[in-house]
Amino acid sequence: MGGPIDFLYLSQEEVMAAGGLDMATIMDVVESAFHAFAQGHARVPSKIVLDLPPGEKERGRINALAAYIGGNLEVAGIKWIPSFPRNPVEHGLPRANALIILNNSQTGMPLAVMDGTILSAMRTGAVGGIGAKYLARRDSETAALIGLGVQARTQALALKEVLPNLNEFRGWDPKKTALEAANDIMKLTGVRTTAVQTPKDAVVGADVIVTATVADEPIVKDAWVKEGTLFTHIGSYVEEEYDVVLHSNKIVVDDWEAVKHRKTPVLARMFKEGLVKDEGIYANLAEVVDGRKPGRENSRERIFFAPIGMAHEDIAVAYKIYQEAKRKGIGQTLRLWTEPIWT
Predict the structure, then answer these.
(1) In what order do the strands lie in the sheet with 168-172?
(2) Are residues 301 and 318 in the same domain?
(3) 278 belongs to a structural domain
(4) Residue 336, Cα to own-chain centre: how many angstroms?
């Protein structure tokens, strides 16, 4: 009994080498995680949000997301992800970074510690793409990207995977780097991407609208949103007029209880104000993915999709990367102990 305990350490570069930028694979893994959640094979406690004074928007926050996934995976883990909005401008650093720890679900011993920054962004993009797979019109051609940061890149990558007729991204961002960001998205996806002057220029006529900003006031007006649109809200606060939600035929989330627990997103605020009720939520995405409820049922439906981000998504992707890294001989083996001091 006892003996040495080793675990695998994966840097960001090693995560990427193990497949961290393979959106098609990541979407398959995340979709499998939604099946596991729907079938009761995943345990996902409420997200812990550590706001740092004077507040998350002024300084930053650190979130902790833990999950266990059984079935074919049998792994547990946690993502520790800081988000500091001023980092890019004041420190030349990404707004978010993350570490993920994976644990053996039978002994609790660590399997891996890895950079989770890329994985977190990619899994969020994957969730948006899976939402579009089930909720967008199959013939969608144009997508509006409100906000052209990291999340716009991964959302665009995922939309390209599931919408075969997609031929244009129209992106808006108040930053001076909008044109450069649009060019980056075009290089990543191969889809024509234009940086437009106003949010209205991006949204009017779009088949899919994705908001991925740190805004806490309405950017998108309901009057701009056409019939048959999928509206995917990725930001943490309020990015659209309430009427965008109220005039939708279906409201879908990844987990309604998790959305209410977070309190800050638009749907949670509308619930607190009595504008959205529990019965007004059409489905959790896992119910749609697992076939328990239909997704889009006709070309006229306006659907509002607002995922909060859940740990089983991260842990499933991280475990896939861990397996690929082991198979390819990528990463550094580190020792936790040679013999435990106490047993």
Answers:
(1) 192-195, 168-172, 142-146, 208-211, 230-233, 303-305, 250-253, 283-284
(2) no
(3) yes
(4) 31
Kindly report whether the peptide bond that precedes residue 54 is cis, defined as omega within 30 degrees of 0: yes
In contact, 126 and 20? CB cutoff 8 Å: no
pLDDT of the chain, 343 residues: tens digit per residue: 678 999 999 999 999 999 988 999 999 999 999 999 999 999 999 999 999 999 888 899 999 999 999 988 899 999 999 999 899 889 999 989 999 999 999 999 999 999 999 999 999 999 999 999 999 999 999 999 999 999 999 999 999 999 999 999 999 999 889 999 999 999 999 999 999 999 999 999 999 999 999 899 999 999 999 999 999 999 988 999 999 999 999 999 999 999 999 888 999 999 999 999 999 999 999 999 999 999 999 999 999 999 999 999 999 999 999 999 999 999 999 999 999 998 8
Determine whether 47 is an active site residue: no
**Strand 208-211, strand 230-233: pairing:** parallel
* Helix, coil or strand: residue 36: helix
Is 96 within the bounds of a domain? yes
Place of tokens 């040679």: 338
The answer on 298 and 162 residing in a single domain is yes
| Domain ranges, residue 49 | 5-119+311-337
Q: How many CB atoms lie within 10 A of CB 106?
A: 8
Structural domain contains residue 125: no
Same-domain status, 205 and 291: yes
Active-site hit among 79, 160, 250, 260: 79
pTM: 0.94
